[in-house]
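Q: What would this chain look like folded?
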Amino acid sequence: MSKINNTVMECVWPQTDTLAGTCQSNIVSMFTPFRIDYALCGLCLAYVVWRRHADRDCDAKYVRMKYATWVIDYLFMGLSMWFCESFMSFNFTPENVFKHQFVNSILINGIDLFKARLYWNLLPKAKTDLLKHLWKSLKHAVSTVRGMKDNFKFIGKLLSGQGIFTEFDIGKASRRSIRHTIWYIFKVALVVVPLLSATLTKFGLYTCEPLNETIFVFGEGKWYEAHVSRFLKVYLEFVLISFIKDAICMNVMHKLFHNNSSMYEHHATHHLQMKEMSLVNLWYFDLPDVFLEDGCGPLLLMGLKALGGGDCSVHYMSFFLCYISDVNTHSIDPYTSIFWNPLLDNSMRGTLSHHLHHALNKEHYSIWPMHHLVGPGSTDKKTGKELDGFEIDCNMYNNIFDTKFPLEL
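A: My prediction, written as C-alpha cells:
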C-alpha cells in the first residue's frame, strides 16, 4: 500500500531531482511570487486577444495565418527558453552550445517549410515555385545516375576550393541548385554558426544563468512586493544588441556593401536570392559577410560593457533571441515574429521589409523597420509622394510578389 501511495504522490508532486520535478518547479516558479516581467507578458497576450477581435473584418484566412504563425513562433521560442532554463543553465559547455545551435538550425528550417506547407496558396509564387524546383532537383540528385554523377562533380568543385575559398564558377545559376543550397546550409547553419557560438562560450563571453532567477525585488516585505527575473534582463539585452547591430552593422556596413562595388563582392552571394528568399536559402553567405553583418552584434555590446568597466559577457539567450530574429527576417511567411513581443510584431513587419530589400536589392537595410512604427520618413523630391511607411511597404510587397495581404492586419 505504501508503494502505491508513494507512486501517487510522485505523480502529483514529483521529486525535485527528477525530470518531472524540475519541470514542475520551473513552472511554479514562473508565477510565484508575483513577477513584473511575466505580468508584462500577460498584458501583451491580452493585447493579442484584443487584436484578434479587432481584426475580424479582415479576410479570415489571413487572420488565421497571422495568429497561427505567432503561435508557432512563440511556442518555439518558449520551448527554447524552457530548454535553456531546465538543461543548458546547469550544463553550459561549448560542446552543448554547438549541439544546441546545430539542432536549432535544422528546426528553424523545418518550421519554415511547415509554414510554407500550411499557407502555400497565400504565399508568393516565386518562393513556392523555387521550393518545388528544389524538391524535384533533390529527387533527381539521389535517384538517377545522372544526378549521382553531378553529385561527384560538385564534390570535386568543393575539393578545389569553390564555395570555401572562392566563388562557385556557375554564378547566379547556383541560386536554383539543390546542391549549392545544401552546401550553404551545411557550411553556415551547421558548422560556422555553431562553431562560432561554441568558441565564444569557451572564452567565457556567453553565460547561461537561470532565466527564472530573481535579480531584483520591488517593495520587499510590503504588500506590493514584486520580483523581476533574469528573463526581463535577457530580453532587454537582446533589444540592445539588436539596436546596436542595426545602427552600426546594418545601417552602416550593410549600406557600404551595397554602395561600394569592391565590398559588394563579399555580399553578392547572399543576394543571389531575390524574390525567391526563404529560410531554406538564406544561408547563401560568404564568411566576412556573416561576421560583419550579423556575427559582431554581441561583440559590440561586450565591448561597450568592457569600456564601462562592467562584465563583458552577455547571456546566451540574448544572443539566441537576436540570432533567431535575424534568421526570421528571411522567413517565407511575412507574419513571422522577429521581435518576440506582440506589440512590436504587430506594429513593425521586419520580415516583410527585409524581403523587399532582397527583391529590390536596395533600401530597407535595417532589421528594425522603424518607419513602420513612426510613419513615412522620406518623400520623392519630384512627386512629393511618400516613399516608405507601413502601408506603402505592404502595397509594394503585394505588387512585387503578386499577393493580397491586407493592409489592416
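Residues 33-53+92-331 form one domain.
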